[in-house]
Design brief:
heterodimer, A: 320 residues, mainly alpha, ABC transporter involved in vitamin B12 uptake, BtuC, two-stranded antiparallel sheet, B: 293 residues, 73% helix
Chain lengths: 320, 293
């Protein structure tokens, strides 16, 4: 068991080193852009998963946190505030927003929380579009380089997945999962559902806000309400489900799968990737709630069981 | 000033009736089956395109295309129920609502992208020869198309209400709403009731789509906006409450037009959403619904 652990850590570190060295080897911008896209979706899906997967609160308003993060960073950065400060501010403002809306929103249970958060995100989407209708240009445009953007997203991905990993093992994480499994039961054991839901929402919002900040650093020009549009909620949510909600690896697999499918199909047939993705999403919700991760464990279990039965059968055969 | 306020109010009421029809199908489906079909706006979009085709290819008057739309969407609804939604019937209520919400999201992505492939992203609308005609009462204009839409919306509301109250099938549906287990023991085929309700809900979305195509415009990405409107109206009127739907629609229509008048037309959608949140938080049983249990 210990050896297995060491091997997986070594593999992980080697993989990370490869990812770090990649921009030195690959000089093609479109491949780096593709990697950034994967990392962007991966971080969004992993952040969504903390609230939606581990705490069981389907948040359909994630775009609000992504949008407010990118908006804060972009505006501060344009004003001339150092990038690092504006970057962190994006996450902080997202947490403030989460706390302001979280307390009333968590009065809504289950599906009402889902449609309530969707309504909130739409309110912000429309309002920002009305108040700031102009195209925004990247302040770092004069010497725009892709490599630092890539490293920022890579660092963010490691940070977010790391936080999710340790959070899940912590007392807080266990409390969140207890709330997901049954709010009343959790309350009866002295676990405050509201506290854990707010905690999950704040962490998820902070991380999503930081992804938004990185987006503001990466993207050259866009309308400021573009990151508020609902696709930024729905796509990462579908990725988390397809990979497997409530697992660390699920959103990672889901985002790689999504971008891979997109690339594969865009070359041939336009928007078919979203149609196929939608079909797959429905099939997973209906028949495989654990996503691809569950499919993998099932296949492996079936395989292991077969091997075991073969092993136990052999001596019997010999005796016979 | 007073006249333009009156004009705004009149438009709000006319649009409100249309909103009522938009939400009617969603409310029926939710009331009977507890499916939260957020692909309702996409079904409405398909209805709009069906009408647009019948109008431009067969030269039919858009209001006469409504029967075609209804049949088409009824079949689409029945197919979607059989293929997808019927799988969730046996789940407990809470899980059923959540899963159907997710499934419907997947469905809306599929339908939206299919529409993009079939009909491109261009905006289309149906302009009739009598589009400019209007009746003027006390200086307030009532456009003919909007009045006709109001009449159509009310016809559908009344027809659905009569169907539920007066027919044998309608009684079976209401019995299922009250207690599906008991209804099932009395020999009502729950699957049939669900199938029928879902297909009728889709057909109503189709009819609403025709009216939207006549009054506004249609395009593949329109679904979410209309789903939100339907959700708002459904919550305002009280979940699954049919007469409440018309009232909810009128409240939303007037709220929107009042916002346009007093603040800015850019914020009409925001006003509806804020109202929606306030009702969800403070009166989850709807503005006119009774408290449960």
């Amino acid at each position: 068991m210990n050896l297995k652990r060491i091997v997986s850590i070594v593999l992980l570190v080697a993989f990370l080193i490869v990812l770090v060295l990649l921009p030195l080897v690959i000089k093609k911008d479109n491949i780096i852009n593709l990697l950034i896209l994967v990392l962007l979706y991966m971080t969004l899906a992993s952040s969504w998963n903390i609230l939606g997967g581990y705490t069981g609160q389907t948040n359909l308003g994630q775009a609000a946190f992504f949008g407010i993060g990118s908006l804060t960073t972009r505006l501060l950065w344009i004003k001339g505030i150092p990038f690092i400060a504006s970057f962190l501010a994006g996450g902080v403002v997202a947490v403030v927003l989460a706390l302001v809306i979280g307390i009333p929103a968590f009065r809504l249970k289950g599906v009402y929380f889902a449609i309530g958060t969707l309504a909130l995100a739409q309110i912000l989407n429309i309002t920002v579009g009305n108040m700031l209708p102009d195209m925004s240009y990247n302040p770092g445009l004069s010497n725009y380089q892709l490599a630092p953007r890539y490293y920022l997203f890579l660092a963010l991905a490691v940070f977010i997945i790391g936080i999710a990993y340790f959070l899940v093992k912590s007392r807080w994480g266990l409390g969140m999962m207890a709330v997901r499994e049954g709010e009343d039961a959790a309350e009866s054991l002295g676990i405050s559902a509201l506290k854990h839901k707010l905690l999950a929402l704040s962490i998820s919002a902070f991380l999503t806000g930081l992804v938004g900040s990185a987006f503001a650093y990466y993207h050259v020009s866009y309308y400021l309400n573009m990151p508020f549009s609902p696709e930024w909620t729905f796509d990462p949510m579908m990725m988390a489900y397809i990979g497997g909600t409530g697992t660390i690896i699920g959103p990672i697999i889901g985002s790689i799968f999504f971008v891979g499918l997109q690339q594969l199909l865009v070359m041939n047939v336009g928007e078919w990737h979203l149609i196929i993705f939608g079909v797959l999403f429905i099939l997973i919700v209906l028949f495989l709630p654990g996503g691809l991760v569950e499919a993998w464990t099932k296949i492996r279990q079936a395989f292991v069981r077969r091997k075991k039965t073969i092993k136990t059968q052999q001596p019997l055969n010999k005796e016979a | 000033m007073l006249q333009s306020l009156g004009q705004n109010l009149a438009f709000g009421l006319l649009i409100g009736a249309l909103y009522g029809l938009v939400a009617l199908g969603l409310s029926l489906v939710f009331g009977v089956t507890k499916f939260l079909n957020v692909a309702h706006g996409e079904l409405l979009m398909f209805g709009g395109y069906a009408s647009f085709w019948a109008f431009s290819l067969l030269n039919l008057d858009p209001f006469l295309t409504i029967p075609i739309t209804i049949v088409f969407l009824f079949l689409v609804g029945a197919l979607l129920y059989k293929l997808v939604f019927s799988q969730t019937v046996k789940l407990p209520e809470e899980a059923k609502i959540k899963n159907t919400l997710l499934i419907a999201f997947g469905l809306s992505v599929i339908l939206q992208n299919l529409a993009l492939r079939f009909w491109t992203a261009d905006e289309q609308s149906i302009t009739t020869s009598y589009a400019g005609a209007a009746i003027t009462v006390l200086g307030v204009r009532f456009p003919a198309v909007r009045l006709a839409s109001l009449v159509v919306a009310i016809i559908f509301l009344v027809a659905l209400q009569l169907f539920l109250k007066r027919t044998y099938t309608g009684k079976a549906i209401r019995a299922t709403v009250q207690n599906w287990e008991a209804a099932s023991l009395m020999g009502i085929d729950i699957h049939k009731v669900y199938l029928l309700s879902f297909a009728i809900g889709a057909a109503l979305a189709g009819a609403a789509g025709t009216l939207v195509a006549v009054n506004y415009s249609i395009q593949p990405a329109m679904g979410l906006d209309w789903t939100m409107k339907a959700l708002i109206v459904m919550v305002l009127g009280g979940l699954g409450n049919i007469p409440g739907t018309l009232v909810g629609g009128l409240v939303l229509g007037v709220t929107e037009s009042a916002t346009s008048f007093f603040i800015s037309s850019n914020y009409r959608e925001v006003a509806g959403l804020v109202l929606f949140l306030l009702v969800l938080i403070f009166r989850p049983q709807g503005l006119f619904g009774k408290k449960e249990g």
